[in-house]
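Could you help me review a protein record that somebody else here produced? My question to you is simply how this chain folds and whether the tokens agree. Thanks in advance; the entry in question is below:
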Amino acid sequence: MTAARTLTRYISWRFLIAIIGVFALCMVLIFLIDFVELLRRSGKLGNVPVSMLAWLTLMRVPSAAEFALPFSVLIGSIGGFLMLSRSSELVIVRAAGMSVWQFILPGILVAFAVGVIAVTVYNPLAAQTRLASEQLYTELFGKQVSLLKTKRAGAWLRQEGIDGQSVIHAKNTANNGLSLVGVTALQFNKDGNLFERLEAESAQLKDGRWELRRVWVSAVGRQPAYYNNYILSTYLTPTQVTTALGSVYSLSFWELPEFIDIADRAGLPAVKYRLQFQSLLARPFLLAVMVLLAATCSLRAFRFGKVQTMVIVGLSAGFAFFIFSEVSRNFGVSGLAAPEVAAWAPAGIAGFLALTVLLHQEDG
């Protein structure tokens, strides 16, 4: 019993070191790529100190690295199995009467534990750093084009207030959509006629109003006027604005259930937030499946050859799994599949296929 526990701890430690090493390497690569991109954009948008760009990049890395976690577990697990196989440790373990399932189990448990920590601890930290990075970017680049938006056209918002209907366009959003930068607002009167155009440097959502700063106001029949502060009425609540403009990745695992509940009670669509919550719930199981997937291609003894081919097959399977996960996510976002199905189906299908292959390889 003592020998089995010692062996389990040894295999678990090897897996943990391999996974952390690959994930750290991914974070370094993400930092370098993002930092170079920020340097390039900074040259076009204005002079920003390199130290501030480096700090901004550091705050953006944790959120971006979350997407690399499944691949880090896959590659780390493949590396762990290959190191054990290369040193003939797997051969010795097999000769001692231990089945493949017994020495795969420590890796599965490590991956599952990593997934739990990633969801409950790492994800909230990543959400906070992403939110802080959005705010810092707003301070550094002002009205310039946002690096945080995926659509170059910016964000559009249609709303109503005491003064009538208005359409707001923002080049950049921060603080989950509650702060806007590079704002253009078209104000309509109660008869639906355009009577005012506002060009503001920034806007903040307060109770029942948008507070605009450094505003040029143009209206029919009079010269444009400048105001340091200007009020635009709105009936929108922070939840409604966050649903329309906010980033789902700026909300942590612990915040999502409350936000989904508020959105449901307000009658607002919360599909992408429900999908994100289910994806986080499924993450520990997904990482455990990555270990099974790695085992299908890396348990072959080195003396039999074709190890490189098996590794390439495993990496290709991981890439195919990523494509399938994105397709499944898009089905969930579009409403073609329930969020629970879209989030859990990739892990379930990949786990079933990996178990089938392992049973065929080991038990015939």
About this structure: The chain is about 60% helix and 20% strand. Confidence is low (pLDDT under 50) at residues 143-153. Residues 6 and 14 are 12 Å apart (CA to CA).
